[in-house]
Hints:
The chain has about 450 residues and is α/β, with parallel strands linked by helices. Helices cover about 45% and strands about 15% of the residues. It has a domain at about 85-110 and about 225-420: Rossmann fold. The chain has helices spanning about 15-20, 40-45, 50-60, 70-80, 110-130, 145-150, 170-180, 195-205, 210-215, 225-240, 260-270, 285-290, 315-325, 330-340, 345-355, 365-380, 385-395, 415-420, 450-460; strands spanning about 5, 30, 90-95, 100, 135-140, 160-165, 185-190, 215, 250-255, 275-280, 295, 345, 355-360, 400-405, 440-445. The strands form four sheets. Strands 3-4-14-9-10-13 form a six-stranded mixed sheet, sandwiched between helices. Helix 3 packs across helix 10, helix 5 (about 110-130) crosses helix 10 (about 225-240) and helix 10 crosses helix 11. The longest helix is centred in the N-terminal third of the chain and has 19 residues, at about 110-130. About 50% of the residues are buried. The mean pLDDT is about 95.
Amino acid sequence: MNYISTRGTAPVLSFEEAMLAGLARDGGLYVPEAVPVLSRGEIAALAGLSYEDAAFRIMRPFIGATFGDAEFRALIAKAYAGFGHAARAPLVQIAPNHFLLELFHGPTLAFKDFAMQLIGQLFQAALGRSGRRVTIVGATSGDTGSAAIEAFRGLDNVDVFILFPKGRVSEVQRRQMTTPSEANVHAIAVEGDFDTCQALVKDMFNDFAFRDAVGLAGVNSINWARVLAQVVYYFTAAVSLGAPERRVSFTVPTGNFGDIFAGYIARTMGLPIDRLVVATNQNDILHRALSRGDYTPDGVKPSISPSMDIQVSSNFERALFDAYGRDGAAVAQLMAELKAGGFSISQGALEKLRETFLSGRASEAETEATIRRLHQTTGEVICPHTAVGVKVAEGHLGAVPMVTLATAHPAKFPDAVERATGLRPGLPERMADLFERPERMTEVANDLGALEALIRERTGR
Ligand SMILES: *Cc1c(COP(=O)(O)O)cnc(C)c1O
């Protein structure tokens, strides 16, 4: 299985190389040269399997010779062993023909654990063979950083540095990053906002001398291995509801378009998904793009669903690549226009996107009202991101079962949930002592030189 760049000029890579590279050298994103298709029989045979067994069968065709079968099975088993639910991704019914897919039973209580826990294991295995050591550096507004730290803590061939904006992440998110005590974990509080952190990371990747010296690697949501891990739960959910005999639709609370793109891959692999509904909060660039063809960022407005507060949705580039008939030059042109302000999607490409994707947006007031109403009518307490999904999904209910992805545990966003329901959601038992554990972090100014010096010192490289 080979991987090609959405901008058409970077080298073709194996699964292992694409996973370790993250971003392509031409600025594009890696996608499979051809997406493997599962037969109806193969999809039907997933019924009744454990999450891990299903994951093996679904991901195996994508990894080529990178891992042997027994090794890959063992890595998958290790990745999901720390989840707090035997089903890993259980379904809960909230209304006639409307279901929640609970993706928050991992160690940091958000769906990002599904991908991060797996790539922690895959990195470790791939690097262990070659004796290579890498330095993972990432910027986070909260969920990605905690998931990455949890996945890479204590692993031998990896140092992990996570930059977060000082004072601008929730207390649960901060403590999930600052309480792991392993020496290879470095939580860095940056004087500035999320954009400051992201710019520093970008600058480090563009400093080639530094990049090579410390073996910089990226695990942000454009990493293909992360998308792949997320394909699995679309299959397990749809098969539980009767696929391949019955079609199923999904609504996905969306920011960087990574999670919903995994649904698109599942559909391309032959899973009978009727529609994929993009749900955005008031930062609705994707809803505007899919309804009007206009992709113009207009500034992030902070919301109560902060993990979806984005201006530029990186993984959307992968969907555009297919919508433009896999024309890398056309995608590169759009991205150049984006740098200069924005672009419009051609009529043909828009029609292609709309064969799969619908979209909707929920305001702040609608999000809060949805948390309150769902609690009153079903007893379920949901996080604000999930509430955006539920609200948008309600506009698309019909004969086809709808699954809304519940992307985080309500206890991760207790203030918004308490405002809506009057109840303060508690952390699950297994992490109830989070507020007693000692914290450890390093504060840095917005200064690239100082940060690089710190990373060199800590890694001894
Ligand atoms: C990251 C995240 C999202 C958005 O997912 P994308 O893959 O970036 O679209 C939604 N909800 C929560 C809780 C998240 O952490």
